[in-house]
Fold this protein.
Amino acid sequence: DRVEMKSLLNNHKNSEFCVPLTSFYWNDANPKRIGTSSIDTTCTIWDIEEKVVDTQLIAHDKEVYDIAWGGVGVFTFVSADGSVRVFDLRDKEHSTIIYESTQPDTPLLRLAWNKQDPSFMATILMDSCKVVVLDIRYPTVTFAELQRHQASVNALAWAPHSPCHICTAGDDAQALIWELSGASQPLVEGGGPDPMLAYTAGAEINQLQWSSLHSDWIAIDFTNKLQILR
């Protein structure tokens, strides 16, 4: 069998230069939509069936590093300006700032929206050992800080089958699973909660994915290796 390119989505057809993309995310609720983020401060929503731009927004004041969908028409971005902003396609002129970094000029690099409870999301700060968990019902308030990594965190993923479990991984070669169940109040006192499970890889972990089909499997990659954890 051969793998062939289905389509090329290009929003700069009249220019030989293309601004680099930083991330893209498939909309699970509406598979014909994907969202992309770029260093030019914009985000673009594509209709991959029609091969056209659905919407393009100036999402932040600085480079946009990641995107996550929270439903059919709701999505969020993180940026070099240190903020998390939520957009709704029904009102493209406005956005809601859910969180702003307490550390000036500290970019937010990655973002994950809870697949089972859309009230919660989590984000990673650049060159930080900390993961910030947010409850979007209480904008600007940190719900939890996960602070047990010993080096910069690179990746995170919520459990596809549980609203209270999240996995994080970083330059300390650790993949940590955290349980946030039963928490009705913010978990920031005393340095936050401890992880319930930990795995040490052979080198810095660059990325991780939690399988939605087999929810007891987590994939991590480091150096030139891919490992499946169970």
Remarks:
- The first strand starts at residue 21 and ends at 26.
- The radius of gyration is 18 Å.
- The chain has a mean pLDDT of 91.
- The CA atoms of residues 63 and 106 lie 12 Å apart.
